[in-house]
Amino acid sequence: MCRHLAYLGAPVPIRRLVVDPPLGLYRQSWAPLLQRYGTVNVDGFGVGWYADGDEVPARYRREGPIWADASFADLARVVRTRALLAAVRSATDGCAAGEAAAAPFAAGRWLFSHNGALPGWPGGCAALAAELDPGELLELAARSDSALVWGLVLRQLRAGAALGEALTETVKLVAKHTEARLNLLVTDGSSIAATSWGDTLFHRTGRGVLVASEPSDEEPGWQEVPDRSLLLATAAGVTVRPID
After folding, report:
1. Hey, what domains does the chain have and what are their CATH numbers?
2. 2 has catalytic annotation
3. Alpha helix (H) residue ranges in the chain
4. What is the pLDDT of residue 86?
5. How far is the C-alpha of 197 from the C-alpha of 175, rounded, in Å?
6. Does position 1 have pLDDT exceeding 70, yes or no?
7. How, if at all, do strands 105-107 and 208-212 pair?
8. 7-61 per-position pLDDT tens digit
9. HSE of 120 in the Cβ direction (CA atoms, 13 Å)?
10. CA-to-CA dists, residue 52 to 49, 79, 83, 169, angstroms
11. Could you tell me if 199 and 116 are in contact, meaning their C-beta atoms sit under 8 angstroms apart?
């Protein structure tokens, strides 16, 4: 399992979103409060962010725990962003280790993260892998369940699907093959789509929009997303609807 978050709003330092919140993603790497599967998230981390004037996001990913990386502490202090996707990783058994397996995954203007697992990985996922053509399989960033799910989402996006449609169609496809946990999160820098499917998901508006696996503080305003739902967010607000 993993923990992840996305943000849209006025430019703020990365540190304010990821490191400073008392119950935020940084702390969730060793002490998540609501995580149902696994206990810590120290198998890698990553942050993807958008800079004004460039729709292609930058990424910083590492294999180890977020709190052990002094370079990230410096980066997070000085880099400001209007849109961000960040994640800390708890690896699924049998999945590849290393930086390449850490979210966010990226292609063009899109950033993606998967909080969950595909049961039976890898052998039990052959039917899902067969949904991708050989070129798409070779393009996968890592030998992991999350990279495979990203490949399925990316196929939808490249075919012209909107963010929410790409996630829901992927969830429905995967659910036909396995009882997976599929909390998915994707952004293009101006909007966010997320699914709640087997684990917790929350959102808050006010000082921008935050979407996260669990609240990063005890301030009011956090709202839980019902299981098996799709969340869509822009700077203007959030909508939530059931996944059929």
Report:
1. 2-115+183-242 (3.60.20.10)
2. yes
3. 14-18, 25-28, 70-78, 126-129, 134-139, 145-158, 163-177
4. 98
5. 10
6. no
7. unpaired
8. 999 999 999 999 999 999 999 999 999 998 888 999 999 999 999 999 999 999 9
9. 12
10. 10, 12, 10, 31
11. yes
Q: CA 14 → CA 41, 46, 73, 78, 220, distances in Å?
A: 19, 12, 10, 8, 22
The answer, yes or no, to whether residue 132 has pLDDT greater than 70, is: yes
Closest CA to 104 of 91, 86, 89: 86
Type of residue found at 128: L
Nearest to 205 by CA among 243, 163, 238: 238
> Residue 81 is which amino acid?
T
User: Are the C-beta atoms of 100 and 46 separated by less than 8 Å?
Assistant: no
pLDDT in tens, 154-186: 999 999 999 999 999 999 999 998 889 999 999
Residue 30 CA from chain centroid, whole number? 18
Task: Tell me what pLDDT residue 5 has.
Answer: 98
pLDDT at position 94, please? 80
The active-site residue out of 1, 2, 101, 157 is 2
- Give the Cα separation of 173 and 158 in Å (integer): 17
Asked if residues 178 and 157 have their Cβ atoms less than 8 Å apart, the reply is no
Token reading at 166: 């790409």
Q: Are strands 208-212 and 80-89 parallel, antiparallel or unpaired?
A: unpaired
CA 211, distance to chain mean position in Å, is: 10
Q: What pTM was estimated for this model as a whole?
A: 0.97
